[in-house]
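Good morning C.,

I know you're traveling, so I'll keep this short. The sequence:
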Amino acid sequence: MTAPDPIRVLIVDDHPMMREGLRALIASLGDVEVVGEAADGDEAHREAQLARPDVVIMDLHMPGANGVDATRAILRSVPGTRVLVLTMFEDDESVFAAMRAGASGYLVKGAQQDEIVRAIRSVAAGEAIFGPTVARRIIAFFAGGAHAVPADEPFPDLTGREREVLDLIAAGRANADIARRLTISPKTVSNHISAIFAKLQVADRAEAIVRARQAGLGHSTAPGPAPSPAQPSPAPSSSARPSPGC
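The tokens, ready to paste straight into the viewer:
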């Protein structure tokens, strides 16, 4: 019996170390092979047309064309290809933009190697697969847990959480303080900040602060610890004590 052809994979990520790690992981498998790499969305589209892979492992935020636009272009020109998003962003906008573009799977960087391998094989077989945190967001969205951003909010491309983080950045808060105030991990704060920089198209924190303050953010902060109970009024002096029997 002839062995099935290996699953042909194109790796798209602007970080060379990430591409190298995925390439090494895939090299250890007998039924998957790397047929190309790309560092941005435009290059990914060209490589997909040349290599015609079964699966594209796609980052979302890259120089040039982003992963969402690249996904849409690849699926239009190479319709037999499947796209598995592997990114550090798990906000609602990123997840649903990738799904609308036609992605068949969505994992967050930091996923275990066996989870990535399983996702590659599942997507190649025509299944849709999502990491646990992404799946919870999808369920919450369809259960009515997601809310539209009011039209008059600044930076409508940001999620509610990203806007909270930006507000605290504009107020001069450090990452560790933001994490404590929002009860999230410092790594999650860093991920949100990276997403904010990409969406606002700013290069650094200082530029983000300027944009945020121009939009009116940074004047309020997340609730701090509850204030101490009011101290009781001092006892009346002896001269003010009522006389017995009053």
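Safe travels,
E.
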